[in-house]
UniProtKB/TrEMBL annotation:
The lineage of its organism: Bacteria, Bacillati, Bacillota, Bacilli, Bacillales. Residues 1-25 form the signal peptide. The keyword Signal applies. This is Polar amino acid transport system substrate-binding protein. Residues 29-253 form the Solute-binding protein family 3/N-terminal domain.
Length: 254
């Protein structure tokens, strides 16, 4: 089954804001939203095609459940809004299952384990999160990276710099406009490998960072969709498809 993928400009989402009901586009195609600025989980190629670990996972789940899906780049905050409004049937976006989010959304079973990671220049005298106190810290707004920083230094911490996407924060670190970035390990490690090689940056773990688990997001109460997602996820975990996708994006670690 072919997955249709196209970019939905935010303007279109805004235009659709008045519509209600299910997001599927009338042909039974299930709409999947993502913030496709998050390699290797979701990223947009030059031609607009959205690719990544998450995309392969949701495509495999869809195939296992005989669903037809289309994947749309919504951005991060707008993804949650689009699910609220029923414009997207689900979201897959390296989204951590948190108690807070569970109040407003339902999540699939966990499909990936992650952790926060601190990224600093190689010569920075930083060994833990506490050492970042007083420094400018870049995070993607409304993410768990932001949450660990505000938990440590307060919600009104002056050094906090929020970005719409994680690469924006990392670019500002490279440009010297922030002293550190706190973000998910997968995306930070991918950056280290592909863009920051040359030893000018290093990553720091902190004991206070809890394991995080990514889940697929649906509107609260959409049990039918949730059941299908969980059933598909179980199938691809049992038949080796999940491991194949994992190895494709993260090497032979599993
Ligand atoms: N796991 C983190 C969170 O849920 C960051 C996810 C950001 N994902 C993205 N595609 N931008 O808060």
């Amino acid at each position: 089954m072919k997955i249709l993928q196209w970019f939905v400009p935010l303007a279109v989402i805004a235009l659709l804001a008045g519509c209600s009901g299910t997001a599927s586009d009338g042909n039974g195609v299930i709409k999947v939203g993502t913030d496709a600025v998050y390699p290797p989980f979701e990223t947009q190629k030059g031609n607009g095609e959205i690719v990544g670990f998450d995309i392969d996972i949701i495509q495999a789940i869809a195939e296992a459940e005989e669903m037809e899906i289309s994947v749309h780049h919504t951005g991060w905050d707008p993804l949650f809004e689009a699910i609220d409004r029923g414009q997207m049937d689900m979201g897959i976006s390296a989204a951590t299952i948190t108690e807070d989010r569970k109040k407003k959304y339902d999540f699939s079973e966990p499909y990936f384990e992650a952790k926060q990671l601190i990224l600093v220049p190689e010569n920075a005298d930083v060994k833990s999160l506490a050492d970042l106190k007083g420094k400018k810290i870049g995070v993607q707004s409304a993410t768990t990276g932001e949450a660990v920083v505000t938990k440590a230094f307060g919600k009104t911490y002056k050094g906090l710099r929020g970005y719409d996407d994680t690469p924006g924060a990392i670019d500002d670190l490279v440009a010297g406009r922030v002293d550190a970035v706190v973000a998910d390990n997968g995306v930070v490690q991918d950056y280290m490998k592909k863009k920051l090689e040359g030893g000018k940056f290093k990553t720091i773990e902190d004991d206070s960072f809890d394991p995080e688990f990514y889940g697929i997001i649906v509107k609260k109460g959409n049990q039918e969709m949730l059941d299908k997602i969980n059933s598909g996820l179980e199938k691809i975990q049992n038949d080796g498809t999940y491991d194949k996708i994992y190895n494709k994006w993260f090497g032979d670690k599993k």
